[in-house]
Amino acid sequence: MSSQPAPAPLLIACALGIEQLALRAGDRDGAGGPVTVLRTGMGPTAAERSVTRMLADPALRDAAVLATGFCAGLAPGMHPGDLVVAEETRDPRGTTACVGTDLLVKELGRAVPGRTVHTGPLTGSDHVVRGHERSDLRATGAIAVDMESAATLLSAVRAGERPVAAVRVVVDAPEHELVRIGTVRGGISAFRVLRSVLPAFFEWHRSLLLPRR
Fold it and tell me: Residue-wise over 61-93: b if at least 16 C-beta within 10 A, else e?
């Protein structure tokens, strides 16, 4: 009797301890295959190093990779707690196309009902973006910015062909910058949303494991 091949694992990458805490996952089963939550550390260099090292492990060689955590919104009208599903991630080294965007939008609507979900390009930066720089990035067509997603996904596809995606929670936005007094309230809102997104990630991963018709 032949055994079924093991399902491809899922690697969920975030940068900060507070993001890892919100995900409340660690290593667990729940997406149709094993799930690992990786805290990469802050910034693109740390993300690239951590993701490349993890995917060198034979157990994670074929893993799907999903980058998540907090971000800064670039589009007017965004609010803390809104969700961003990347159609692609960008940084000076290149652009990485994301897989299953429509499914993620649908499943996030179920997991976090009532929250606005934005889709579009997610751009990378090596520092916190403020003021006019935010406007400059918006002019490129990007809807949000963070420091790790682009590096995470680019490192993932360079390590081997695999599905990748990025989902971020807005923690500050053009009308709600982190320097303002509303920061704490916005941060709590974003934390609660990030805490609720895992079921959507699991459904995305499960869909990748289904046989193609």
Answer: ebbbbbbbbbbbbbbeebbbbbbbbbebbbbee
Radius of gyration of the chain (CA): 16
Q: Tens of pLDDT along 26-46?
A: 345 555 568 899 999 999 999
CA 177 to CA 71: how far, in whole Å? Answer: 11
* Token couple for 84: 């961003």
Q: Which residues pair with 170 in a beta bridge?
A: 71
Counting Cβ atoms within 10 Å, is residue 210 exposed (0-12), middle (13-18) or buried (19+)? exposed
Q: Return all residues near 150 (Cβ < 8 A) that are at least 6 apart.
A: 44, 89, 90, 91, 96, 122, 123, 124
pLDDT tens for residues 74-95? 988 898 899 999 999 999 999 9
Alpha-carbon span 144 to 125, nearest angstrom = 10
Beta strands in 55-194 (DSSP E): 64-73, 83-91, 94-97, 117-124, 144-146, 164-172
Other CB atoms within 10 Å distance of the CB of residue 179 = 8
Question: pLDDT tens, 107-149?
Answer: 999 999 999 999 999 999 988 777 777 888 888 899 999 999 9
What's the CA gap between 111 and 95, in Å, rounded?
28
Comparing CA positions, the residue from 10, 55, 7 lying closest to residue 157 is 55
pTM of the model: 0.88
Cα distance between residue 40 and residue 15, in whole Å:
5
